[in-house]
Design brief:
The chain is an alpha+beta fold. Helices cover 23% and strands 17% of the residues.
Length: 142
């Protein structure tokens, strides 16, 4: 009977930042192992080289905040932790590419308002008629 179990986890490594900066990558390795012991319920844990390189990729002081791993519990009784390279998020794959030969449609201008809503010109009074002569300012002659 095969007891091999495979699961994919996202391991949060945010608490690594609480440790001194010259020990963070080592602590991240220990946190991943501890996470595997807790979730896979076994004491023997092995980390693949790819996961180790991923944790050490930015140096000892700046490990990643979280990593996505595949944990496989083997028949031999240990857990093998490997890098998960599965499906990508759907949103990134669905980029629309427009062909270059297609001409964009001309943008139609909004239609003018009907004349019934606009003020008729016959009602508008010229400026000279709108001001009474007594209030009009005298024009200065040079």
């Amino acid at each position: 009977m095969s007891q091999e179990v495979e699961r994919v986890y996202t391991v949060n490594l945010g608490k690594v930042l609480l440790s001194p900066d010259n020990q963070r990558a080592k602590r991240a390795i220990n946190m991943v192992k501890e996470f595997a012991r807790h979730h896979m319920k076994t004491e023997q844990v092995k980390i693949e080289e790819d996961v180790s390189h991923l944790l050490w990729s930015r140096g000892i002081k700046h490990p990643p905040r979280k990593i996505r791993v595949r944990m496989t519990k083997t028949d031999d009784g240990y857990v093998l932790i490997s890098k998960y390279e599965g499906e990508e998020p759907i949103g990134k794959e669905e980029k629309k590419v427009e062909p270059e030969n297609v001409k964009p449609e001309p943008i139609s201008e909004p239609e003018a308002k009907p004349e019934s809503e606009a003020k008729p010109e016959s009602e508008a009074k010229p400026e000279s008629e709108s001001k009474p002569e007594s209030e009009a300012k005298p024009e200065a002659e040079p």
